[in-house]
Specification:
The protein is α/β, with parallel strands linked by helices. The protein folds into 2 domains: about 5-140 and about 310-335, NAD(P)-binding Rossmann-like Domain (Rossmann fold, 3-Layer(aba) Sandwich); about 145-305, Dihydrodipicolinate Reductase, domain 2 (2-Layer Sandwich), CATH 3.30.360.10. The chain contains 14 helices and 18 strands. The chain has helices at about 15-25, 40-50, 60-65, 75-80, 95-105, 125-130, 145-155, 180, 200-205, 240-245, 265-270, 310-320, 325-340, 365-380; strands at about 5-10, 30-35, 55, 75, 85-90, 110, 125, 140, 160-170, 190, 210-220, 225-230, 250-255, 285, 290, 295-305, 350-355, 360. The protein has an 8-stranded parallel beta sheet with strand order 4-3-2-1-5-6-8-7, with helices on both faces. Helix 1 (about 15-25) packs across helix 12. The longest helix has 16 residues, at about 365-380. The protein is globular, with a radius of gyration of 21 Å.
């Protein structure tokens, strides 16, 4: 019997978990039953302020929470008895240790990219392999960088264009909330392993993808920066490249000639658009940095490490529980609830100047503009239904 509403638990209320909890709460076909953690500081207290039932992941944590004045709804075991699926957002390696608990409780489970592929045996990116996750007991939503590489690679590979992908990743040194603990200053640290782990990880989603990645970390905490060089099976024009990226979900263009010249300016745009926490769930591709020649296409894009996996997790919940069997329906539903768009500034988005010298509007932009107009008409506040623009 098909479920009409899925009951969800989030175990681990950190950088990813708090965002997934908020996203679940926005879905009309999901119920956030509760969140679990072991901390007693401001992080879990935010969950209390938001009205989320808080559960203690361990007996020790329960005692500490109660001593700190936090109302505890119960234990993680008791939470698992009430749900259909749990999104494990605990720190790296802890999630794998939780697997026996989830299996014993008979709940479906989702892990994040910090865990190895083998913990679930299936790695997930919604636009790539949603169908393969239908009805599974568990799946792993891949890391932020792997999610971005998979979205971009699949956007081109589905046309049969990809012969080989090479990508260089400049990763943020640390997350903003813990920059006081281990941020780096005045240096950059290259990873000495080639390929970096993101390439093989992308192959868990796209098994036939020929990809090599190199990575390093820099002295900043505002997302990641990728440079991709894709060797193509035939010459691919800039027009074709733009259209392929436009037609793929959760990829949006930004332009340096409009002042979006760096990671911080794109983050500032998200803040100016009143995105919760300044989140960017899309991969932001610099349109005016796209290039192509007879052998390759070249892309530069930004990856918000704190947010990009959130919509993937929501879609994964629907896939595992078979709440929705059509990936496009789930993606559109998630995108509408969160406000994910194909154009951040649709009212002033310019036509594309094609190689012929002719200005041509992509047909999808009109749909985005119509959605944004409806959004403005209802207003930023007081709307009872999700009105943010969906992917086209």
């Amino acid at each position: 019997m098909k479920l009409e509403r899925v009951r969800v638990a989030v175990n681990g209320y950190g950088v990813i978990g708090k965002r997934i909890a908020d996203a679940v709460a926005l879905q009309d076909d999901m119920e956030l039953v509760g969140v679990a953690d072991v901390v007693t500081d401001y992080r879990i207290r935010v969950a209390v302020e938001r009205g989320y039932p808080v559960y203690a992941a361990t007996d020790e944590a329960r005692a500490a929470m109660e001593a700190a004045g936090i109302l505890v709804a119960g234990t993680l075991g008791e939470l698992l008895e009430q749900v259909d699926v749990v999104a494990d957002c605990t720190p790296k390696k802890i999630g794998a240790q939780n697997r026996p608990r989830y299996e014993a409780a008979g709940v479906k489970s989702i892990w994040q990219g910090g865990e190895k592929h083998e913990v679930a045996g299936y790695s997930f990116v919604a636009q790539v392999n949603y169908a393969g996750a239908l009805g599974r007991d568990s799946a792993r939503v891949v890391s932020c960088n792997t999610t971005a590489l998979s979205r971009i690679s699949h956007a081109l590979d589905r046309h049969g264009w990809v012969k080989r992908v090479r990508a260089v990743l400049l990763r943020r040194a640390t997350d903003p909330w813990e920059s006081h603990l281990n941020g780096m200053i005045n240096t950059a640290v290259p990873e000495t392993k080639v390929p970096s782990h993101q390439g093989p990880d992308a192959q868990t989603v796209l098994p036939d993808l020929d990809i090599t990645t190199l990575a390093g970390a820099g002295p900043f905490n505002l997302s990641h920066l990728h440079f991709a060089m894709v060797e193509t099976t035939r010459p691919v024009s800039l027009d074709e490249l733009r259209d392929a990226l436009w037609d793929a979900p959760r990829i949006a263009f930004v332009r340096a000639d409009e002042g979006l010249v760096a990671l911080n300016s794109v983050v500032e745009l998200m803040r100016d658009l009143d995105r919760p926490r300044g989140d960017m769930w899309e991969v932001a591709v610099w349109e005016d940095a796209l290039a192509a020649d007879e052998r390759e296409v070249y892309l530069t894009f930004q990856v918000h490490n704190e947010a990009i996996v959130v919509p993937e997790t929501i879609d994964c919940i629907r896939a595992l529980t078979e709440l929705e069997t059509d990936p496009q329906v789930s993606i559109r539903k998630t995108d509408a609830a969160l406000g994910i768009t194909k154009a951040f500034l649709p009212a002033t988005t310019r036509p594309v100047l094609h190689l012929t010298g002719e200005d041509v509007e992509h047909p999808g932009i009109e749909a985005v503009r119509a959605q944004r107009a409806a959004f403005r008409e209802v207003g930023y506040k007081g709307s009872e239904e999700p009105t943010g623009p969906a992917s086209t």
